[in-house]
Every structure is written in structure tokens, then in C-alpha cells.
Known about the structure:
Blueprint: E1 5-6, H1 7-12, H2 19-31, E2 35-39, E3 47-51, H3 53-56, H4 59-70, H5 83-93, H6 96-99, E4 104-109, E5 114-119, E6 126-128, E7 136-139, H7 143-152, H8 156-159, E8 162-165, H9 167-174
Parallel strand pairs: 4-7
Antiparallel strand pairs: 1-3, 2-3, 4-5, 5-6, 7-8
Helix pairs in contact: 4-5, 5-7
Amino acid sequence: MLGPLRFTALRSNLPGISAKVLTERLEKLEVANVLAKRVLPPPSGAQVYELTEWGYAAEPLIQELGRWAAKSTQHNPMLPLSPASFMLSLRTMLDPAKAGDRHTRVGFRFPTVGFVAELAEGRMPVERAEPESCDTIFVAPSGPALAAMFYVGVSAEDMGVRIEGDLAIADKFMTLFELPEKIG
């Protein structure tokens, strides 16, 4: 959902899956027109997998499943999740009414990947990119560290997170995300 990835990156984000099983699943998704393979231009020349337009259209379904799962009394927002999964959770749990007409550019830097979220008009596209020219940047050791801050209220210091840039913007930004009330 956040842009093309190489096979090795996909595999590292899916612990426990063998290369053979991942290859088979990617082939099936390609045949079903959910994703496509392409080769990046030189000098990289690497092969990447990316969602098709139809594949990206599944995001609302994935978000609804995420909101449904978060309503479970067994849901624990501090369980392991990848940085990309955390970013998708933010897109899912964003409250557009709270966001209102705020406009801010927020960066997220993890040990192996960076993201930039551009909040505007109650929407928040996210791209995989090195955070630059951001109003504030969250530098975190993991997805669960930020989930604990955003969804549970644990302090940045307790989670080993550093906030660069405007702290007031970071504090306001964190208030825009809320897990749904537990029902099951």
C-alpha cells in the first residue's frame, strides 16, 4: 500500500514465510491482477512488486478489517508490527473530523525505512521516503514503540523514541488517531 518493494523487503516484512511460499503467493496475485512486477531503471535495475490500481482499491477493505480487529477486547496495539503496518494503522485510525483543515508534513524514521505523511484536508497519504523538510519527525526503534505512544499514551522517552522538529506539532498530530471502542 505504500509503494513498490523488492522481494527481499517483502520477505523481511513477513516473518515466518518461506521464499517458496512467498513466490507462489506473489505469482497468484500477479495472475489475479492485484500486483505487477517491474524492473527499476538503471542504475538499480532491481525487480520490484507493486500493487495495480485494482490492488490499491483494496485499501478501504483492509482499513475496515483493521478497525473491526481493533474493537476486539483481545486486540493489543503493542504487539509486533512492521513500520509499514504501523503507518497503515495511522491511515486507518485517522479521525478526519479532528484533523479538520490542518496541514502538516510529518516524518517517521525507523532503523531500516523512512516514511512521510502529508496531512491535509482530513486525508493523509503516506509515502516510503527519507523524512526531509518535515514539520516534525518521529525517530523510532520499531512500529510497536510508536503504536504504544499513539494508541496507549506511553511516553516517547519510555519507548526510546526521539522527536525532531516542532514538539507542539508532534503532540497535536498524535491526538488525531484513536482506536475504536472495544465491543467484543
